[in-house]
Design a protein that fits this description.
This protein is mostly helical. The chain has twelve helices and no strands. α8 runs antiparallel to α11 and α9 packs across α12. The chain is globular. About 14% of the residues have low confidence.
């Protein structure tokens, strides 16, 4: 038993970034071999599902960045605080306004699984801030790594403007050299002081972050199956709790529906059945997490 404990301690002495990659390797490989990613690489994704994905990402990043701001001076996170380089909320707001119009806050849906993800982020930020780095690393470096490839694929498949409208999420204006920035981020993260027990919890949280993403994918699939294309309402009114509960109105969490004022119509719809089209749209999400993280 002592030998086993010694081996565990030795393995955990590796850099946190390397341990993070090893801890999530299995689920990454599973995602990498799904038809989702292969189909997305063929450009088979529809505008409707892409808009729903963008909406869920908005709620997720809003929660993540709210908690990051609350912990920006906390020693367990401060060294990896890069708002100008990484934060995505403002970019997602631009994309949502492009897709849904000026009233996008009143249009976008927030499925229950997305609310669950948001709740976990707030819980971590408030009660377990030492785990926040797991969510930040999983999301930001994955997006930064795979962003440019995904941007080109989505732009072509959805026939979006070459000037970048609708794709601000993939554009990191504050990062001039992605490779060098990722090296800096990893070095800062590896320098965070944490004991063995905390390091293990961070690794478990990284895996949980990935599973929360998968649950969001599944919920969005169900949302599409009940969407306006099938004559059913998209989503009942959703309300999310933030640190300041009177902020809920800022997010416009009301029943989601396709905006009649959207700047984009049905252009880009590639297949005929909602289920098949949604499977293709899921490739976007799987690729964002899996391809991006493998490229770290």
């Amino acid at each position: 038993m002592e030998t086993s404990q010694a081996h565990s301690s030795e393995s955990m002495s590796k850099d946190l970034s390397e341990l993070m990659k090893e801890a999530t390797k299995e689920v990454h490989e599973q995602a990498e071999n799904t038809p989702f990613m292969k189909n997305f690489q063929k450009g088979q994704v529809s505008l409707h599902e892409f808009k729903l994905v963008t909406a869920s990402l908005y709620f997720i990043y809003s929660a993540l960045e709210e908690e990051i701001e609350c912990n920006k001076d906390n020693p367990v996170y401060a060294s990896v605080y890069f708002p100008g380089e990484l934060h995505r909320k403002a970019a997602l707001e631009k994309d949502l306004e492009y897709f849904y119009g000026s009233n996008w806050r009143e249009e976008i849906p927030c499925p229950e699984a997305t609310q669950k993800y948001v709740a976990r982020l707030h819980d971590v930020g408030k009660n377990h801030p030492e785990l926040l780095v797991a969510h930040a690393y999983t999301r930001y470096l994955g997006d930064l790594s795979g962003g440019q490839v995904l941007k080109k694929i989505a732009q072509k498949a959805l026939q979006l403007p070459s000037t970048g409208e609708g794709l601000a999420f993939f554009t990191f204006d504050g990062v001039s050299n992605a490779t060098k920035f990722k090296q800096l981020y990893r070095s800062r993260m590896n320098a965070l002081e944490m004991d063995l027990a905390t390091k293990k919890r961070v690794l478990e949280e990284a895996k949980k972050a990935f599973l929360l993403n998968i649950q969001v994918f599944e919920a969005l699939q169900e949302l599409v199956s009940k969407g306006p294309e099938n004559g059913h309402p998209v989503q009942p009114k959703a309300e999310l709790r933030t640190r300041n509960t009177n902020k809920s109105h800022e997010h416009g969490l009301v029943p989601g529906k396709d905006s009649k004022t959207t700047n984009r119509g049905s252009t880009g719809m590639m297949l005929t059945t909602p289920l098949v089209r949604w499977i293709l749209a899921l490739s976007f999400l799987a690729t964002t997490v899996a391809v991006g993280l493998f490229a770290m």
